[in-house]
Amino acid sequence: MVTKTEETQLNRLENQVDNGGGGAWEYLCLVKKLKVRRPDKVLRHGLSILNDPKKRSALGPDVWTLYEQVSIAAMDCQCLDVAKDCIKVLQKQFPESKRVGRLEGILLEAKGLWAEAEKAYSSLLEDNPLDPVLHKRRVAIAKAQGNFPTAIEWLNKYLETFMADHDAWRELAEIYVSLQMYKQAAFCYEELILSQPTVPLYHLAYADVLYTLGGVENILLAKKYYASAIDLTGGKNTKALFGICLCSSAIAQLTKGRNKEDKESPELQSLAAAALEKDYKQRAPAKLLLLTSALKSLKTS
Amino acid sequence: MVSQLYDKTLSFRTPFTPNQKPHKQKRKKSKSSTHRHRHRYRASMAEDLVLDTAIRDWVLIPLSVVMVLIGILRYFVSKLMRSSQVPDPKIVKEGQVIVRARNLRAGANFISPKSFRARRVYFCNEENGLLHVPKGQAQNAQAQMFSDPNMAMDMMKKNLSMIIPQTLTFAWVNFFFSGFVAAKIPFPLTQRFRSMLQNGIDLSTVDVSYVSSRSW
């Protein structure tokens, strides 16, 4: 997760470089460190450095990492010739390298030659069975082909060995949600919350999944997680506020037939509704009428 | 007069004389002369010996510089000789399991009790829990270290790379810098250290605070 200071720094550098100021190399280093995806900018500025032999020699041994970064960005932008040239240069410098082999595999993937790419990765995996990036590329092939069950299988096998990799858990959760396997997705989100309990995104996604699963217990739990998401974001998360209103109305509907008294106080819902109205008044006053009518229907139903 | 004599014997102006023999002869003379006057200046043992600044320039500083350089050299050699270890899948998995279990403990309050219990059982189940080690199998870490051939090789290599430079330095220092007092230790020492610290000096009456260069 990118922190706020890093984000502001990144934006500042981006503006600086886009408007003709120097600092392209720092920008590229920051992008690489934060692992953000900005292929067009990386490609443009990286090529401007690489095509200038003076700047190239000024980089020293870092020029090879720059080649790698630019080749991946080129493949992202579908400029496959540029990517091929970069990989050729890297191949000449490092003939039997694992990393260059990986790049070649990614190039095959970008061209759409799935079978060859899979073969390349399997042969590389035989030599280094513990390389996480190769495993993930294989999963990416299966996902790009639309073959979700295979992707899930590979990812599960990867997670059996590398079970502390939270990015993989997140990917698995998203695949499960897209396949509507909500119980498994809930498990993955639980893992994510365990490893990073202060990230509100995971709480929100978990609450969404729980709400979709339905059932009184799940919706109660979902309400709690929406509340924790609001807590973690300082009350600014509109989706979580809406979530609370929806959960409260759903619980009221589901427990209508029972004679139990209201366990949950109605304060939470009214608080959330009030916060929503304030937010809309500030940011989108045109839609305020829609909001109030929707909230009213929720309360009465 | 006695102190003057002492001054002369201890001020070696040029330790790096190419011809070692007259150097040693000088020492032998001083030894015999001190023997004669031994009973006389046992009383004056307490007074300080004046050490020539040439000793400091030519001995202490080069020796320190050489020590530092050898340390640096040892670091680079060890970096070269270090064999890249192939990560064992079992060890990697164990590491990851530990991280995940630690996360479970730390974040237990953030997930529902049912899912926490399910995960706890997954880890600690008697038969097939991930963290459960049956009683007889927990291996002694040291026995494992010796049985693993790669690790034993690594340890031997490390030991060798430490021993060889030490012996070389020792011999070199011994060859060049033997036979005179190099420095004075600021705090008083007992007689037992004499053989350790005053290796090249054959006078048995010199205060133990004065050390030869070998101890440096």
UniProtKB/TrEMBL annotation, chain A:
Keywords: Endoplasmic reticulum, Membrane, Repeat, TPR repeat. It is a peripheral membrane protein. Residues 100-209 form the EMC2 TPR-like domain. Pfam families: TPR_EMC2. One of its GO terms (cellular component) is EMC complex. InterPro entries: EMC2-like (IPR039856), TPR-like_helical_dom_sf (IPR011990), TPR_EMC2 (IPR055217). It is found in: Endoplasmic reticulum membrane. SUPFAM superfamilies: TPR-like. PANTHER family: TETRATRICOPEPTIDE REPEAT PROTEIN (PTHR12760). Component of the ER membrane protein complex (EMC). Belongs to the EMC2 family. This is ER membrane protein complex subunit 2. The lineage of its organism: Eukaryota, Viridiplantae, Streptophyta, Embryophyta, Tracheophyta.
TrEMBL record, chain B:
The chain crosses the membrane at residues 58-77, 163-187. The keyword Transmembrane applies. Residues 11-20 have a biased composition (Polar residues). GO terms for cellular component: membrane. It is a multi-pass membrane protein. It comes from the Eukaryota. SMART domains: DUF106. Keywords: Membrane, Transmembrane, Transmembrane helix. The keyword Transmembrane helix applies. Belongs to the EMC3 family. This is ER membrane protein complex subunit 3. It comes from Citrus sinensis (Sweet orange).
